[in-house]
Design goal:
single chain; 108 residues; mainly alpha; 4 helices
Length: 108
């Protein structure tokens, strides 16, 4: 049985790794599709499945969680992006909740 990370910092590091993997998978998908090498290639199919699972998990999350996870972990938006939507204290409170909610939806 896998032990689930309970503390916020561990969850955030895991989500950072997942976000980096998501970005790399999206780039590889683009390269496969541009080169016409897609099809039954196992790497391509794994990337498609991974990106789909992350996107599908986001659909089950609240709007604030979607916004924060996408900007902070999946798209690497510029620093301070949240100021348009939230004041800093609300953002940091919501970010903690977003990480916990997203990990819960993944059952991690």
């Amino acid at each position: 049985m896998i032990k689930k990370p309970k503390d916020y910092q561990t969850q955030k590091k895991l989500l950072q790794f997942m976000g980096d993997t998501y970005i790399a998978s999206k780039k590889r998908i683009d390269l496969y599709e541009f080169s016409g090498a897609r099809g039954n290639d196992p790497s391509y199919l794994n990337d498609i499945a991974y990106v789909h699972s992350i996107d599908r998990t986001l659909q089950d999350c609240s709007n604030d969680t979607k916004n924060i996870i996408r900007h902070d972990f999946l798209e690497k938006s510029e620093t301070g992006w949240y100021r348009v939507f939230y004041n800093p204290s609300s953002y940091y409170r919501l970010k903690r909740r977003a990480v916990e909610e997203f990990m819960h939806c993944l059952n991690i």
